[in-house]
Structures are given as C-alpha cells and as structure tokens.
Amino acid sequence: MAKITLDNLAHSYMANPKADDDFALKELNHDWADGEAYALLGSSGCGKSTLLNIISGLLIPSQGRVLFDGRDVTHAPTADRNIAQVFQFPVVYDTMTVRENLAFPLKNRGMDAAEIARRVQRVGKMIDMEAQLNHKARGLTADAKQKISLGRGMVREDVNALLFDEPLTVIDPHMKWELRTQLKKLHHDFGHTMIYVTHDQTEALTFADKVVVMYDGRVVQIGTPQELFERPAHTFVGYFIGSPGMNLFDAEVDGRTARIAGTPVDLGDAYAGTGTMQIGVRPEFIRLSTTDEGIPARLRRVEDVGRHKILRLEVNGHEINAISGEGDVIPEGANRITFAPEGVNVYANDWRISPQGKAA
Fold first, then answer.
1. For the ABC transporter domain, which residue ranges apply (predicted)?
2. Residue 258: burial class (beta carbons within 10 Å; 0-12, 13-18, 19+)
3. Where are the alpha helices (DSSP H) in 191-255?
4. Which fold has domain 4-240?
5. What is the rounded distance in angstroms from the CA atom of residue 339 to the CA atom of residue 269?
C-alpha cells in the first residue's frame, strides 16, 4: 500500500505543446492517501485513463512527478512499482486453466504452494468461478475472462496499489453489482490503495471513499459522494452527478438576492460581487408552488419512475427538472417553483463560490 503523490503533473500527446488546450492532462497537484479507495470519474476523453497509465508506469508524463510514499517512481517501469492493474478488456492466458491464471502472479513471486492454493480458492469463490477453476480459459465468455483478470488483481495482498480501468464494461449488470461489492469487501479486509476509472457515476459512488471528478483534463473536485451531491465545486460535477443532474439558472446576483427570469430570489446568504452568475439547484430541492411566490414555471409532464416522480418543467424557455415523492400529490394549477435554501449553490465562471464569511 502506498500514499500516491502527483506533483506538478501534466501530459500532452503532442511533441511540443504550447497552449493549455494541447494538454490531455492539465497540471495536477494532489496527495492520495495510503489505503483509500478512489474512483476517477468523468466522461470519455477527460483524461482518466491517461492519469491511470501515468500512475501505473505505462506512460511517462510530459512534466511533473509521481511519488509512492515519497519515492519518485516517475520513470520507474511498471514492474518496479508493485502494482496490479486490471484493464477494460480481459487479458488472460487462454492455454492456462482458471486456477493457473489466478495463481500466475503469485508463482512469479515464488510464493509457497499452500498459500497460493488458499488465495486462489478464496478469490475463485469471490468471483463466482469455483466450479470452473480447472477449466481452460480459452472457451470462456468475455465476462468470465474479465472476472479472471479481476481475480488476478485481487489475489495479491502485497501491492502498493490496485488500479482498475473500467473493468466492468463487459460484465452483465447483476454481476457488476456483485463484483463491486466484493471489491469493497477486499478493500475493507486488506486496506489496499485502490484507484478505479469509470464513466458510470453509480460505480464510482458505490465503490469509492473519495470520488475524483475529471473534466477536460482537470480534476475539478475530490470528495465523498455526499460532498459531490450537496456542494458541487464545478457546474460539471453538478451536471454529471445525480439523475437528473443539477439545474442551472442564469441569474443576476446582488448580495443575498438573485434575479432569475425577472423574479427576485432570496439566497439565504450574501455573496461577494455582483453581475451575471449561475444558481445551481438539484431537482430534489425544487418545490412546486400555487401561490404568487416563486419563479414562473410550466409543468410539461410527470414521469413516474417507481421510487419517485420526475417533474419536467419549463422556466424561461429552458427545461428544468424537479423530483417529487412517489406518494406526493402534484398540486393542480401549480405554475411557480421555489428552492429549499439548503440546496442552493452559486457559481461564477462555472466554479462554486461561498457565501461571504463562510468556507467553501
């Protein structure tokens, strides 16, 4: 296990990068704690896999350093970093049995045969392949082969870090849930430093202690699932986390008052500066109103998704989402919306700003 430090790290696939946009991975300075589970979350092309490959040693960064427990490993080969990596598509030895595939990394390290057998049996049970341990890998399905790849990463207990690059892409939905649960248990039992790349917010939020949200080559927020939900540091985090994501309203802000679609809204706290900003409110914090208070809105349709209802509204020509409880009655004639004060965030140039006198 290792504390991973990213020091002034950046990477470009161009020979002579000049502008900020030339970098696939823009400058990062972060410490990732020993023994924590992190998820790198973002849309395709945001730099997740580039960062993971730099940490693993498959890619040398254009600038900066990678340190494991303070030791500079920036130019060290993957084999010298003592990590286990599982890729998006399965990498297995077809001529070997499932048992031999799982045992391979342990045999390479000269481990005692009895200990190898114990660990292989345990991991075989975890990935639900006990009955296939003596089968050749050649004839197995893609998701079964990926379970072997996952098992090879999980069978080692002495690694500095376990790295997963979208490992559940080819796994069926039910097995995804089972394997995520097993990975969480593995982390709880052995305390490995784990980094899990995904574009799926459910995978990230259910797997990680801390979620690292990336956008356009930058880390825009590192936080717990609760922090990402309640206080998105960037508008992309609000949009990407949640289903539906956070609503954004263009607003003129002056102190503690925002003017949205011509309607004054009390923000509850005063904000420094004046001018055009954005108000971010998650659907869970929007309420329908039949009074004269609130922002004019038109209810277009109601979608019942079982656990709750999604209200599709139109405000000033833009679609807005609200969430209502499954048993809630939609008030007839409701034509305005209000915000729960605890659910309001204010953004300037896409970055969240804090009320005056309060920390971020």
1. 4-241
2. buried
3. 201-207, 225-230, 235-240
4. Rossmann fold (3.40.50)
5. 14
